Amino acid sequence: MFPSLVLTPLLLAGLQAVTVNAISTISATGAKFFYENGTQYYIKGIAYQLTPEDPLTDEAQCKRDIVRMSELGANAIRVYHVDASADHDGCMTAFADAGIYLFVDLDTFTTAIDQTAPHWNKTQYDRFSAVLDEFQQYDNTAGVFVGNEVLTTINGSIAAPYVLAAARDIKAYRDKKGYREIPVGYSAADISELRPMLQDYVACSTNSSERLDFYSLNAYEWCGESSYSTSGYDELQKNATGYPIPIFFSETGCNTPAPRTFDDQAAILGSEMDGTWSGAIIYEWIEETNDYGLISYGASVSNAAATNTLVVDGYTRQGTPTPVSPDFTNLKTHWATLNPTGVSLSAYKSSTSAITYPDCPSSTSGGWAVDPSSALPTLGQTYNKDAASADSTGTGSSTGSSSGTTASSTKNGAAGNMMLAGNPATERLFAASIVLSGVLGMVAFWL
Ligand SMILES: *[C@@H]1O[C@H](CO)[C@@H](O)[C@H](O)[C@H]1NC(C)=O
Ligand SMILES: *[C@@H]1O[C@H](CO)[C@@H](O)[C@H](O)[C@H]1NC(C)=O
Ligand SMILES: *[C@@H]1O[C@H](CO)[C@@H](O)[C@H](O)[C@H]1NC(C)=O
Ligand SMILES: *[C@@H]1O[C@H](CO)[C@@H](O)[C@H](O)[C@H]1NC(C)=O
Ligand SMILES: *[C@@H]1O[C@H](CO)[C@@H](O)[C@H](O)[C@H]1NC(C)=O
User: Fold this and answer.
1) Residue 179: DSSP 8-state
2) Greatest CA separation for the chain
3) Domain extent at residue 180
4) Where is the composition biased (Low complexity) (predicted)?
5) CB of 389 closer than 6 angstroms to any ligand 2 atom
6) Is the pTM of this model over 0.90?
7) Does the annotation mark 251 as catalytic?
8) What is the pLDDT of residue 411?
9) What is the 408 CA–ligand 2 centroid distance (Å)?
10) Tens digits of per-residue pLDDT, 124-172?
């Protein structure tokens, strides 16, 4: 990664433009992420999706946002959708210069794995690999996701093997191409009836080719005045203790009640959880209808002309970022005091031989529906409902437990998330509701 020290000064001068952009890669060993120098890497990340298709093509905009992200203390972004064929040099270099890493989702609006009729086919594989081809060239690509919230109900558990099959094939593709070992993971919805089976399932194989390189959770359990124990984080911690691969929050930051305090950061990046978890990604950078933004590019524009491509869903998506107050400062203040050091790679390495893998969850009637002894789907395979129902005793009814700390915790105004997940019908519906709420004056803006 770094230029040889024996280069002559003349050569060094010529290489200056290149060496400025040198950033350590991140790798996963055992249950932790490390920089090349062996220091443990903890994520302080921001979900960044200014435009639905790809926020990493507008270098000037990335640079304007990076100024504020650096002020916040961020060292990572998460991007849900990118255009693999676009040029990302400008943004990726600018993020690297600021020490900011990328976690990127490999699917598009049309290629995400679907829990109702799961399949994993060549069209999906080609698309996922194209994104990997594009982003593996950047040293600040820290990880890729083969899915985001694919499973959202207990009867969606049939899709879990398809998520894992995608990870298996993308890892094999990465290795065949000789790319560095960019960690391949999954971002799960926080659904009580799927916990802890999904978490265990994706990490239970003793064959590293058939398990994820990391697992992450979109969790909104800690809301307002809460604590480590009342939020349920103590339970998340208990069930993640001894987990064999890195685990982190791929979305967090409950927004009800306002203002957002981000007090959960002190637990995640502090002594309660930093021995197990690798940090958190805050949802999200831009203020839009779902009201999770850390910054805004101006008030909403409910009647923008259809030709104004800078406005999507009534929100301007370009310009000078203005912090949402006091949320932005609340997060900044926490992160400034939270600098876990973890363990060094050299000290940790000797203990990795003692890592054990959780038991693969067994299937239960009306519950987790994956037979732990069945092989993963092959590329091109589609879930066969009829064959499956022959050896199942029915779908059962999911009662959706919602008591105490075992409750599911998904984002409020889930429409925002669905927009990211790429449901065009929902997007339109969503746009209509913005107009409505604008008219009713129900949307509050922090300027
Ligand atoms: C290792 O590299 C990281 C990232 O560049 C840096 O923050 C950290 O201080 C370095 N650790 C040591 C021990 O030099
Ligand atoms: C799960 O079951 C519910 C109700 O029984 C149904 O509405 C939903 O579509 C099912 N989901 C999947 C993924 O099969
Ligand atoms: C993969 O499935 C999608 C539907 O989700 C379909 O449009 C596409 O043609 C399939 N690709 C192949 C190679 O079968
Ligand atoms: C591990 O999994 C890979 C991918 O499915 C497979 O090709 C390989 O044979 C497995 N290795 C062992 C030792 O089972
Ligand atoms: C933790 O695991 C136990 C059993 O393995 C399960 O009953 C419980 O719901 C899990 N808790 C969470 C918060 O996932």
Assistant:
1) -
2) 74
3) 2-446
4) 387-412
5) no
6) no
7) yes
8) 87
9) 16
10) 999 999 999 999 999 999 999 999 999 999 999 999 999 999 999 999 9
379 alpha carbon – ligand 4 mean position (Å): 15
Peptide bond into 326 cis (omega under 30): yes
Are 354 and 381 spatial neighbours (Cβ–Cβ below 8 Å)? Answer: no
Which 3-state string (H, E, C) describes 110-136? CCCCCCCCCEECHHHHHHHHHHHHHHC
For residue 343, the domain's CATH number is 3.20.20.80
Number of compact structural domains in the chain? 1
Q: Is the CB of 176 under 6 A from ligand 3?
A: no
Q: Nearest residue CA, atom 5 of ligand 2? A: 397
The length of the chain is 447
Residue minimizing CA distance to atom 10 of ligand 5 = 196
Strand 184-189 versus strand 214-218 pairing type: parallel
d(CA 278, CA 183): 13
Catalytic residue among 134, 251, 284, 287: 251
The 10s digit of each residue's pLDDT in 383-434 is 998 877 654 433 333 333 333 345 789 987 533 333 333 333 333 233 333 3
